[in-house]
Amino acid sequence: MLDYLLSFLILTGAIFTFIGSLGLVRLKDFYTRLHGPTKATTLGVGCLLIASTVYFSTRDAGVSLHEILITLFLLITAPVSAHMLAKAALHIEIPSLAKIPENKVSEYKKTRSEVVKQAGRQEVNPSSTETVKPDV
Amino acid sequence: MGRLLPHPLLTPILAIVWLLLTNSFDPGQIVMGLLLGWAIPLISIRFWPEKVYIYKPLTLLRYSFLLLFDIIMANFTVARLVLGNPDRIQPAFVVMPLDLTSDLAISLLANSITLTPGTLSAQLSLDRKYLLIHAFNETDTKALVAEIKNRYESPLKEIFEKC
What we know:
Number of domains of chain B: 2
Oligomer: heterodimer
Distance between the termini of chain B: 25 Å
Structural class of chain A: mainly alpha
Largest sheet of chain B: 3 strands, antiparallel
CATH topology of the largest domain in chain B: Alpha-Beta Plaits
Strand content of chain A: under 5%
Shape of chain A: elongated
Number of helices of chain B: 5
């Protein structure tokens, strides 16, 4: 019985991880490709880790719980790395299927000294509307 | 209190992480975990300039379950889109104005957006007032922003910021 549960979890995990990687091949531009590994793999790896917890808890004497940490770290690091990748891609202007909002691009092209200068100015006069308007 | 325990919340969290890491619940390991939980916040105090308060722990718990459910749904959504016809996907960039001001709340919102169906946080504006979101397959951007605000931003605001 337990074997069936474990095989089901491992197979589900493998399928979702595979779909996540397949997204890298099938999708058309860099930004949509980022969606595959950040989402489809969380459930995939999650299932594999649950299977590992169940297996090692039943086989050995003690409960094996450090897999929970892997899930936790994965859930924290996957979005952060995707965010940094997207940010870097926007910075070097990788072409996108979607229209990139123009004023946003110019904003993060600013150098560090400009940022510091702007932050300083805002402290002096917080009501100044130096910020970029949203274009929604 | 403030000096010796700069972040009271961090200590039990680090202790629990230590116990999970060593995979044992011996009294010795619990003491070690608490020691680390006390020492690490003291050493890394410069990385945590703002104090973290949780005003509504129950809302945080409810938010975690909502997020977990959405992550599982996101997997199915993305799986369907990947296996479907990739030419039909219409990605879009959406600019979302932020109501949150706390750093931690903004990071958690950005993480939540990336982990949930069809959206990816791509860029936080330098003044921390707008978040650039890449939507996987979205035509109604206004509805998307309204949904994120309702579903994720308002509970986070309740949890981490004094109203």
